[in-house]
Amino acid sequence: MDANTPHRSQFSTTDPDEAQDFINRMYAARPPKAGRLDKTSPVAISQVSAGGLSYVDFTMPPDLTLHLDGTDDLAVTTLLAGATHAELGPNIERYRPGDSFLGSFPQGDYLVRCYDFRAGILTVPASALDQVTASLPDQPRRPLRFASLRPVSPAAAAQWQRAAQYTRTLLEDDLSAASPLIIGSAARLLAATALAVFPNSVLADPTIADSRDAHPETLRRAVAFIDENAHRDISVADIAGAAFVTARAVQLAFRRHLNMTPLDHLRHVRLARAHADLLAADPATTTVGQIAARWGFPSHSRFTAAYQRTYGVTPSTTLRQR
């Protein structure tokens, strides 16, 4: 199956061996030897995934202890019902419905106890984490480690919830979920949000060299790369690599010389490409939504507003003129 094709699946079982095998395979989790499942231990999931992103509605057995191993991907759990607590060495963190906390993550290794547990789990692919951490200022690379499974503050928790809800909306919409530009951007948004929300080891301050490298030649190389690759799922890290500078330097170059960010410029280029496609499209076989999704615009209303600010008419007007 194409990685960009949305995939939906459901699974449920009361067979203890099948349930345990499923938990082991999907979540790098294993019950301790004394925690074998039995016939009263149902497992049920409903999953939607696209481009490495996934959202799972997961119902666990009534009382189960799991040993979670570290994974390259990052999973964040939002408790929907029941209760759970995590044991990280001598520390115990307890969660109630509505709380969000880290599930599996790089270097993760801890015990979690679940009671009548139902949760929504968003998984962010390792590739998105790599792209976001590569966008940070140059410095000795440090392993990604988290100091706590909890968000750093209630405001940070709310920030994660907003990003998670936005991502779920994209995954539930077939047109958005099938767009690699939209899903790639959403994956990086979630990865960046997770690094901002959960205390970790990789964030650091900008360097002096970044300011020195933010010159017009850097901007020229970055703009050329964007123009040539706007149809691809590219990140700030990709743009910086093409300009031979750090991500912070390329961001400073765009701010200093164009008063915008690299991603602002990328959106302007994609809007122009969408405009060209609308002019060339046959309204009998093509919709505005299809063209907007092709160029990475998941929200019809925001696309229409941005298009009208730039071209003075709605995109549907341009399409009908054809």
CATH fold node name of the domain at 7-130: Jelly Rolls
Question: Structural class of the helix and strand makeup?
Answer: alpha+beta
Which band does the percent of strand residues land in? 15-25%
Query: Whole-number radius of gyration?
Result: 22 Å
The total beta strand count reads 9
Q: Sheet with the most strands?
A: 9 strands, antiparallel
Distance between the termini: 35 Å
Give the averaged pLDDT, no decimals.
84
* Fourth-level CATH superfamily of the domain at 7-130: Jelly Rolls
Helix fraction, binned, reads 40-55%
The sequence of SSEs as H and E is EHEEEEEEEEHHHHHHHHHHHH
Provide structural commentary.
It comes from Paractinoplanes lichenicola. Keywords: DNA-binding, Transcription, Transcription regulation. This is Helix-turn-helix transcriptional regulator. By secondary structure, this protein is of the alpha+beta class. Among the domains are: 124 residues, Jelly Rolls (Sandwich), CATH 2.60.120.10; 56 residues, Arc Repressor Mutant, subunit A. 46% of the residues lie in helices and 22% in strands. The chain is built from 13 helices and 9 strands. Strands 1, 2, 3, 4, 5, 6, 7, 8 and 9 form a 9-stranded antiparallel sheet that branches. Helix 3 runs antiparallel to helix 5, helix 8 packs across helix 9 and helix 10 runs antiparallel to helix 11. The radius of gyration is 22 Å and the shape is globular. The two termini are 35 Å apart. 38% of the residues are buried.
